[in-house]
Amino acid sequence: MANFSKSNVPRFSVEVYQNEFLPEGGRDVSAIVTVTATGGGTTGRLLLVSVGPHDAAARQRGPSAAVAVMVDCSGSMDYPPTKLRHAREATAAAIDTLRDGVAFTVIAGTHKAAEVYPGGGRLARADAATRAAAKDALRALRAGGGTAIGEWLRLADRLLRTQDAAIRHGILLTDGRNEHESPEALRASLDACAGRFTCDARGVGTDWAVKEVTAIASALLGTADIVANPSELAEDFQRMMESAMGKEVADVALRIWTPQGTDVTFVKQVAPTVQDLTHRRADAGPRFGDYPTGSWGDESRDYHVAVRVPAAEVGREMLAARVALVLPSPDGTPPRPLAQGLVRAVWTADLAASTSMNPQVAHYTGQAELAQVIQQGLDARKSGDWDGATAKLGRAVQLAAASGNAETAKLLSKVVDVVDAVTGTVRLKAKVADADEMTLETRSTKTVRVKK
After folding, report:
1. Among candidates 68, 136, 130, 55, which has minimal Cα distance to 100?
2. Between the CA of residue 394 and those of 382, 399, 420, what are the distances in Å?
3. Coil, helix or strand for 72?
4. What is the DSSP letter of 77?
5. What is the rounded CA–CA span in Å between residue 286 and residue 250?
6. How many CB atoms lie within 10 A of CB 229?
7. Residue 65: which H helix or E strand, with range?
8. I want to staple 248 with a disulfide (CB 3.0 to 4.6 A). Which of 40, 99, 418, 433 is the partner?
9. Chain-centre distance for alpha carbon 417
10. What are the tens digits of pLDDT across the range 351-407?
């Protein structure tokens, strides 16, 4: 393990957990990389500023963060009418949570996107006066029209890009399906916004599409969740904004170097949620690849890195990969690693050593499979394949029990009757509430951390 510190940057550390031993001719190496950020502060790009009317220096530096809140105002938000009222209250709670000096905007989303506050293609700086004005503007929100989420995201992107802020973040609320633009249009919007800002997405009620909301959060490196009861929106929005305000540095990349002849098989975030980053690789030089991790505060995450090395004889050792955390350099010079760890390969004739799976690797391999079989089981259930659904969800129950994922086990118990958790013997429930099924699907990628 190695770590580096830099003035005003959170201290990052990297720990690598693996079984480095391979049998003769073995090629596949897996490691769990734990990344921890502590003791933040601000970077040269992330500035905590005073917003006094005479603080010219603060105005010149710009805000520490910029936030766009996108509120679904389509016609379905009027059924029942209390839904839009709860959305207004939730947005007000988020606004109240903004740190002084943060730039912010509120967007109303229907089949088009409209600025609610402050308007004029700009963002406001959070203080007592602008918070009050923004909450007053929320009273004008009315339900009507369709749903085109890509339009909301593109407007948020245009507005957020007016700010020279290190942290750019969106909060998106929808209660329906994206019926007024094509899936291709939404994907194009996500591709355009990826890397520009992060976004947490929430579905309220049970008439929205889980895969649409989770795809938004995945593409924009945010969180996704269900708020089945609209009365709980305010608390959830407050938590989301508190988390956003706790971010201290953005655009952190997991940079992986591999030697000649070695290839990266996959890179996945495996805690606190499963997020496949393999296809997000950006080449960063000969044998280097960058994988985006988004914004960081004081937190810890785990990543599963798998590489394929050239086959070798017993007694050979090699560095299979070097994993580092890097920030983009404002002047274009090569970034200095904030922390790094090494993945090794050692060929041995000791069968016990080469066949033993590292506990961390085993745990997260199971957690990734858990997320996968839940999705497969629910898809099978929806298509009427009850035998397939029973087999997949039974395996999910078995994995949840074995890994100690009590929260997922609880959600599964609302969809299946558990006969024997150890063997994964279950019976599908004949009737399942939409909210229970959607909650399981939305939260299927949440993991529990391995006990080290």
Report:
1. 130
2. 16, 9, 9
3. strand
4. G
5. 24
6. 11
7. strand 65-72
8. 40
9. 31
10. 999 999 999 999 999 999 999 999 999 999 999 999 999 999 999 999 999 999 999
